[in-house]
Amino acid sequence: MTSAYGVTVKFMSYGGAITQIIEPDRNGRLANIVLGFPTLSDYEVKCGAGGLYCGGLVGRYANCIAAGRFTLDGRRHSLAINSAPNALHGGLEGFDKRVWEVRPLAVSGDFVSARLGLVSPDGEEVYPGPLRVEVTYSLSDAGSLTIEYEARTDNTTVINLTNHSYFNLAGAGSANGVFEQVLTIDADAYTPTDVNAIPLGEAASLEGTPFDFRQPMAIGARLRADDEQLIRARGYDHNWVLNKRGEVHPRLAVRAFEPASGRVVECLTTEPGVQIYTGNFLTGLYAGNGGVYRQTDGFTMETQHVPDSPNQPSFPTTVLKAGQAFESTTVFRFGTRD
In the chain, where are the structural domains located? Predict the structure, then answer.
């Protein structure tokens, strides 16, 4: 999909993965700003068994479920433990490893779009209830990528969907990674985690912590601070509790800026949280577009509900009941500044 502004978005049916986002810098020079791989087999190996989730649509439940267990309507469900000791990102064969049915939609006005769909049968990866999922990718001529998620079920289940693109606004494989790229996050709190990456149950103030991005701050400015949360996660891998929640229309959650190129990406969402992850387990094992990927070569803006919500009633619910519709929208708005 290509916009008049000069942004190009490429994706594939395997995992619904976004493989490239080409964006111009302040001087019109183009670069691919998401991590990815050149072949399908790369994705099957490195995002399948390798667990990188590059650009994929993640579900049925994004992020962690503690010990792979939750109770729903009085029934205990035990999931595959694919990130010991937890279940992660939908299990061994999550949505990022499924082949989605893709239907191009007609160009309408100032945007072009495509709709991706799949059916997750009752009991797939042990999740209850059949789930019919549709995701629409739309690219506007102004340079905004909108991701609209819809899902329905016949039986009560849990759901948490996101896109797992790793961004590097300097270009995938750039020498300095994302260390100097600047984030602003519209959140006053985040959810600290235990040693197994499970939220402790209470949101904590950002005040005085390395997690405070209420004012623009480089990703690397406090990444190596002597902070227990950063040490446990080997960097940022946490959920920020967004200030504006429960709204129908997407609102600004994160603004990312790369000073050298001038590239800007604004992330807007209807979701209550965003998981910022600095590629802490990119160990140089795999080479992708632009070179070998290592820690801080990319960061995610995974818009979603709080991890482990099925086990934590203090967080917004992720339960979807029969006859209800799950609807969620995230927008990545591309641009430049001086």
Answer: 8-336
164 noted as active-site residue: yes
pLDDT for residue 318 is more than 80: yes
Q: For residue 29, is pLDDT > 70?
A: yes
Distance from C-alpha of 189 to C-alpha of 176, rounded to nearest angstrom? 29
In the annotation, is 249 catalytic? no
Catalytic residue among 164, 266, 271, 305: 164
Instruction: For residues 253 and 176, give the distance between their C-alpha atoms in angstroms, rounded to a whole number.
Output: 25
pLDDT of residue 135: 98
Of the candidates 240, 250, 245, which has an alpha carbon nearest to the alpha carbon of residue 316? 245
The tokens describing 171, both together, are 């270009």
Contact 18, 55 (CB under 8 A): yes
Per the prediction, the chain carries an average pLDDT of 95
Catalytic residue among 23, 238, 302, 305: 302
Q: Which residues have a Cβ under 8 Å from the Cβ of 324 and sit 6 or more positions away? A: 152, 153
Q: pLDDT exceeding 70 applies to what percent of the chain?
A: 99
Strands 319-320 and 157-158: antiparallel
Please give the Cα distance from 131 to 152 (Å, whole number).
6
Top CATH class of 8-336 equals: mainly beta
